[in-house]
Amino acid sequence: MAGVFVIDREDGPWGYEGEMWDPRRAVFFWAVQAIAERVRNEELAGQLHELLDGGYAWLALTYYTPEQAAEIVRVIREELRPAVEADFPPGGPYGAGLRENVDDLVAITDRWLSGSLVSARVVLDRPESRRDGVLQWDATAADVDWVRGVLSRHVASPELSAKLAAHELKAPDWLSFKDFSDDEVAEMLAVIRDQLPVVERESARELVTLTATWEPGLTA
Question: Using an 8 Å Cβ cutoff, are 64 and 9 in contact?
């Protein structure tokens, strides 16, 4: 079973954003223990130890004050890799996998700090789609907002252009095709397939690939 650590925030330009780190429970508990031993806030250390004592394998930065969340992120970015080296010398049975897990967590906190969490998505779905069968493009909120802007500028219908421009980007669905009619989706697909491949935005290439063979009504 996995532990879940949500690296999230509520103060971004698009409201709530978060990425999830879900290592094995043993790795999760080790990381929380290492953080609890290194934070400079005694109250926060006590709260983290209470979580460990209760055996809870779920944690989110938004459970804590902004100052406490920033301190957790500081420890992860500055002290968690050295903690791995201290507790799990190279060549041991757990070191390699643990290092990869910690590298992933550090990368997420880097994105948290820079405001570039991969927390938004474009969902290729229809109202009748099964939720577990739809394709989606996971990206930063800025990337999804950029796609929304490209669509708004290039779709043929003035009504659809205005609808896209007014579409509010927010969790959980961000930009979901189920919010648009079949004709509107057809227009949006045409723009993604024809316009996005010619722009120099590396992050958009996966969306172009996803839509290349997708048709409304089809699932993954």
Answer: no
110 Cα distance to chain centroid = 12
Phi then psi for 58, rounded to 5 degrees?
-145, 130
Measuring CA to CA, which residue among 82, 98, 125, 106 is closest to residue 23? Answer: 98
In whole angstroms, give the CA distance from residue 175 to residue 137: 10
Question: What is the SS3 assignment for 11?
Answer: strand
Token representation of residue 28? 């999760």
Determine the straight-line distance between the first and last CA of the chain, rounded to whole angstroms. Answer: 26
pLDDT band at 70, cuts 50/70/90?
very high
Each residue's pLDDT tens digit, 73-85: 999 999 999 999 9
The whole-number average pLDDT for the span 158-183 is 92
Peptide bond into 172 cis (omega under 30): yes
Q: Which residue has the tokens 């043993």?
A: 26
